Design the sequence.
């Protein structure tokens, strides 16, 4: 199925959704991106609900829903019986549920907004809270997502980690903690940053001084046989 055919298919599916469930959805966008799941091999993220502006109790929240054509195409290549219409319908309604949940859970929405602001500060090279990413979307154990960026917490002092079903090793070279290591060299990289987080054990001193965070880029190597 071509990109334009997929866009037309999603447009037809939208007509089958009752209007009250789409209230507050600013746009349903079709993106050409391929978004690999950060944990499981041969699994891809098919869609995402992105909260936009809101005030008060969240009932006026507007969201943008994105379906990733590249991810659908990657799965279709793996599965001869892949049903484009059924998968598109399941993804679209799943993301609509996320939109309604965002409206209902204002506290979670505020935390998500704050995480986005802190991540923007990280990109700008400004100071940020080293635990901000934990207020983003939890994808799996010790794996979080904020905007297009994925954050993986390193286990203990090791630089070994899993990505999309494969094992990699990052050179740590006595990096001062806490540290955010943007990793390059992944076989299936995310659209945004893949960041290996080296956490620092909390201490009483952290209560009255701002923690300095190390940010750097590292080249990783696969360690799978």
Sequence:
């Amino acid at each position: 199925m071509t990109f334009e055919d997929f866009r037309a298919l999603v447009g037809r599916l939208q007509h089958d959704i009752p209007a009250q469930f789409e209230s507050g959805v600013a746009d349903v966008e079709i993106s050409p991106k391929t978004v690999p799941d950060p944990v499981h091999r041969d699994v891809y993220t098919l869609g995402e609900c992105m909260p936009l502006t809101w005030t008060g109790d969240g009932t006026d929240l507007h969201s943008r829903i994105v379906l990733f054509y590249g991810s659908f195409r990657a799965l279709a290549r793996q599965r001869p019986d892949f049903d484009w219409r059924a998968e598109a319908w399941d993804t679209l309604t799943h993301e609509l549920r996320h939109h309604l949940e965002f409206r209902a859970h204002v506290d979670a929405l505020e935390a998500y907004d704050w995480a986005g602001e802190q991540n923007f500060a990280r990109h700008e090279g400004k100071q940020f809270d080293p635990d901000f990413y934990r207020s983003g979307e939890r994808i799996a154990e010790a794996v979080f997502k904020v905007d297009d960026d994925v954050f993986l917490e390193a286990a203990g002092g090791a630089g070994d980690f899993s990505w999309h079903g494969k094992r990699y090793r990052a050179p740590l070279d006595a990096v001062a903690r806490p540290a955010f290591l943007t990793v390059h060299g992944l076989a299936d990289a995310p659209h945004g940053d893949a960041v290996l987080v080296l956490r620092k054990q909390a201490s009483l001193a952290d209560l009255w001084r701002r923690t300095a965070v190390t940010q750097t880029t590292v080249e990783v190597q696969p360690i799978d046989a």
Summary: The chain has a mean pLDDT of 86.
